[in-house]
Specification:
By secondary structure, this protein is α+β, with helices and mostly antiparallel strands. It is built from twelve helices and 13 strands. It is an enzyme of class 2 (transferase).
């Protein structure tokens, strides 16, 4: 629950809370305000002070409130992270033991102990590079859309002081090079949460594919951490924070379809311009495209002058077609990986009109065929394509205050409900 000093002290009936709040305030003044988390236990209540103040608009002006999360503990003691280093209340061993006990209590008292979430990928329906920035990055304008291909991430609370990550995918880093770990660190930094996790990543989105699998993982981790903490942060805050660790991550906090600009971190939600029941097939060769190498080959003066907003309007009016699915990174990607150009050309030539559009997603190396779920027959017949990644997918969206759902599980739930209805 959120509480401000003024709201607590307005009622004489709240003297118990006020005394506890005063202890909490003293802890903050003692130095905890500059740490990630201050925890105070007093008068049988535990107060967790969140580092960032709560800002509320009141009578036309912005007010800031200290934020405490309060829970009954039956204990009457004083604890914190940084302030204990400077206090003479206990020696270091006692401090560490009580901190571990408190962290364990946090885990044991949470309303949820484990959580399994779908972590979706994305495609760039069109991607225009509009300029080069002074910082060396490029400005882009792109229609991002979430798709039904995704990973599954399982989170469970851990009494440890470190996250642990496992995965079924070889070669995926398990330390803070992984965006999942970086996202959880970011959440703790922003909110003061003391939760750490055991995480298992069931990887289905290929790496180096231009499908944003890692970015989707990071967004999912932020959502999970927020759910474990009772949704302390708003979706907007999660979106803003996520841009600090990756420019594609903020997109996943849209509702699934968005017009993204700048480096990709400026996200404008739009109504989905493509029907959700249109299938696609994703083809990714074994070879990957290095994003750095692709941009090194990119020449801004070679791209056409079609306004990306015009592409968005054409797509909304007329539906998806080859003419709107422009990716300015295709040409440099084809220089880096010539076989990718051949794959796209052969898909266009072999589709016999079954694909409405064939295009590369992101900086490669996935080629997307929209309009049909099956790949061309030559991918099955020729040895050089024996190890390509092939997946059917659909466009996907989410509802406000809900995370993305695995399309397969949603269909299964629908079938189960239909069966149950038949017996009523």
């Amino acid at each position: 629950s959120y509480a401000s000093h003024s709201s607590l002290c307005q009622s004489s009936k709240n003297t118990h809370l006020t005394d506890s709040y005063a202890s909490a305030k003293a802890a903050v003044a003692f130095g905890a305000a500059n740490s990630r988390l201050a925890v105070v236990q007093s008068n049988g209540l535990k107060w967790t002070h969140m580092r960032n103040p709560l800002q509320i608009k009141f009578n036309g002006s912005q007010k800031k409130f200290d934020v405490f999360v309060v829970r009954a503990t039956g204990l009457n003691s004083f604890m914190g992270n940084d302030e204990l280093k400077h206090s003479n209340l206990q020696n270091n061993s006692d401090s560490n033991a009580q901190s571990d006990e408190l962290r364990s209590e946090e885990a044991n008292s949470s309303s949820i102990q484990s959580l399994s979430l779908f972590s979706p990928a994305k495609v760039n329906v069109f991607l225009r590079i509009t300029s080069k920035r002074p910082d060396g990055y490029h400005d882009l304008a792109s229609l991002f859309h979430v798709i039904s291909l995704g990973d599954t991430i399982k989170f469970s609370l851990s009494p440890s002081i470190k996250d642990s990550l496992t995965t079924n995918a070889p070669g995926v880093p398990l330390d803070d090079r992984n965006l999942i770990i970086r996202a959880l660190n970011l959440y703790r930094e922003k909110t003061g949460s003391a939760n750490f996790f055991r995480i298992h990543l069931d990887k289905r989105v290929p790496t180096g594919a231009g499908l944003g699998g890692g970015s989707g993982n990071a967004a999912t981790a932020l959502w999970a951490a927020n759910q474990f903490n009772g949704f302390l942060a708003s979706e907007k805050e999660l979106q803003e924070w996520s841009g600090e660790i990756g420019s594609d991550i903020p997109f996943f906090f849209s509702h699934g379809a968005a017009y993204c600009t700048s480096r990709g971190e400026i996200v404008q939600d739009i109504l989905p311009p493509i029907p959700m029941d249109i299938p696609m097939v994703l083809i990714k060769p074994r070879e990957e495209c290095s994003t750095a190498e692709v941009y090194k080959c990119f020449r801004l003066e070679t791209v056409n002058s079609i306004n990306p907003l015009q592409l968005l309007e054409d797509l909304s009016r007329n539906g998806i077609s080859q003419s709107v699915c422009i990716n300015d990174l295709e040409h440099p990607a084809f220089e880096v990986l010539p076989s990718l150009k051949i794959l796209k050309q052969r898909m266009i030539g072999a589709n016999q009109g079954q694909y409405k559009a064939v295009f590369m997603s992101g900086s490669g190396s996935t080629i997307v065929g929209v309009g049909h779920p099956e790949p061309p027959q030559f991918l099955y017949n020729e040895e050089e394509y024996s190890d390509v990644f092939i997946s059917e997918a659909y466009f996907l969206t989410r509802k406000e205050n809900e995370w993305y759902q695995d399309r397969a599980s949603v269909r299964l739930v629908g079938v189960t409900e239909a069966i149950q209805q038949s017996f009523r």
